[in-house]
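Page 42, continued from yesterday. The earlier attempt failed because a stray header line got pasted into the input along with the sequence. Redoing it now with the clean sequence only.
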Amino acid sequence: MIVKIKKFLISIIFITPLCSVFADDLEEMKEQFKVLMNENKRIQQDNQALNEQLNKQKKLIDQLLDKFEELEIKSEENEISQDVTTSAEGILAEEFLPNLSIKGFSDINFIAELEDIPGVNDQFFVGQFDLFITSPIADNISILSELIFEFDEMNETVIDLERFNIKYNFSEKLNLRAGRMHTPLGYYNETFHHGTWFQTAATRPSIHQFEDDGGILPVHTVGLEIFGVLPFDTFGLKYNLSIGNGRGKKVSEIQNVIDSNSHKSVSLLLSAIPENTPEFRIGANIHLDKIPADDAATAIAARKSSIDELIVGGHIIYAGDPLELLFEISYIQHDDQLSARKYETTGLYFQAAYAFEKIKPYYRFDFIDFNNSDPFFLTANIDIAKHTIGTRWDIYSWNALKLEYSYADRDDTDNTQTITIQSTFTF
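This time it went through. Structure tokens are written below.
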């Protein structure tokens, strides 16, 4: 029994410290477990934040991928656009695209007669409404047209295609023009066309009036023309050579489509222009034609046959700034084939002007001496000597006001004194 008690006491002595040790280890394990639990909780929280960060980064990556795809598509479109542009440039290099340009010219007028002339009244009137249309269709080819809207003596609207031609520009020395054009009959008709804006005075010289305004020269021609400037040491020689349908049966007739005979008109204009004074030129012109017979019932006997026409002219021009001096003369000879008679008509004009900045006073003298028996000019053969003084005021670069007085001495009819006010403009 004593032995058992000793064993029990010994076990207590040894086990009690062990239990204490085990208790301490347990507490330490508990603390470690708590630490592990806290660490796990922290890790879980960190994982949640990491997941949120990863989700944000994923969204950002998706956005970047979408942007990249968009930029890639745009890049492909740009490449396609560049290819199209390159192709278009290639097409443009091979084929010149037309470039239409339209400019307008017109004028508003008031005319007052100072003499009491039966049937002639003071009046306002609208001048020609001129649409000047050009278009290059190749590097050296261009189209030109001048479409006119105007009113006739019956106050009816009339549309005239005054000029329409195609031009081939081979060089400064050689150009070719085909269509309806102004006949090279001298300086004025070659330089001034249907827009009154360009000319100094309100009206054209009497000898260069248009056919439907009572003019006596074949101002328009339908045909071909070669022209250019040939350079020499001290001057340039400007030349115009044309061949066309020629005159019609009446003075006002222009043979646009049908020529009344097989004979063609031929015109040659030469002008010498000094190299050091391009404002000055001197030259001459010649025109040959066969005017067809007029077989109408109303035609006079002398017009039952054709008429050979010869026109010879000359000009001396100084078109400078501020000084302007213009002189031209034309001699017209008609050889009637039936009567074998020759008829001579002479016309000329002289114009002088001097510009004082925007104000430009001018004077012009017009003269026409008809052969009163000329069968082709029977409806227009009234001799005239006309003096005109006036002033042009360039109000703007696109609008000018002209005021002029003219006195006309006409054979076999009343003399006239006329006041003309014109506002001419371009647009």
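Notes: The mean pLDDT is 86.
Reminder to self: strip header lines before submitting.
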